[in-house]
Amino acid sequence: MANSTKMIKDGETQKLAKTKTKSLPKSDVKKLDMSKTRAKKIKHSYAVKDAENALLLKLKDGDVIIEMFPDSAPNHVARIKELVRSEFYNGLKFHRVIDGFMAQTGCPYGTGTGGSGKKLKAEFNNRPHKRGTVSMARAMMPDSADSQFFICFDDCDWLNGQYTVWGEVTSGMEFVDKIKRGTGQNGMVSDPDEIISMTVVADL
To answer: What is the arrangement of strands in the sheet containing 96-98, beginning at the earlier edge strand?
Structure first.
């Protein structure tokens, strides 16, 4: 049986047309969405009790997980989540850091003089100020907390019952320990470290 395949001569060969997708500008190229399975794995890798009430705090040295206490400070937790979801904390400085005590952040001016503009009624509770505790900074008046908070490096029992404890570092405390310290009694920091980002774990 004769072979019916036609041989193409050299002169008859044609170049394939270039694909149009290669010439598309980057802005027109659709990015692939992360699969739900992969997103779920990333979220579960943080092993939090309640993803809606846990924060991922990204620092220069690594990731920190803060689990919040909506049962002890519901209004503070709700406000913190509101600020986090508006990206309020991203880029803010750890302006006051005292070795053996705490690292404070949350001031939009980086000086400890500002906030978000919304004062919170105190929700003092029985949770102790210990290593890893996340508590609300305030002025002299009890109901003056706004957006500034601090993370304790060590146990600080003298603060118990006077500041609103709303969370606790459950992973990454070794990265909190590396936050740049301030000098002097007030602990103000020159060229301070900053929050790279804060995210509610449920939103990852």
So the answer is: 96-98, 102-105, 149-152, 133-136, 165-171, 62-68, 54-59, 197-200
Q: What is the pLDDT tens value at each position of the chain, 204 positions in all?
A: 444 444 445 544 444 444 444 444 444 444 445 455 555 555 667 889 999 999 999 999 999 999 999 999 999 999 999 999 999 999 999 999 999 999 999 999 999 999 999 999 999 999 999 999 999 999 999 999 999 999 999 999 999 999 999 999 999 999 999 999 998 779 999 999 999 999 999 999
Superfamily designation of domain 36-203 = Cyclophilin-like (2.40.100.10)
Domain residue ranges in the chain = 36-203
Burial profile 160-188: b = 16 or more Cβ within 10 angstroms, e = fewer:
beebbbbbbbbbbbebbeebebbeeeebb
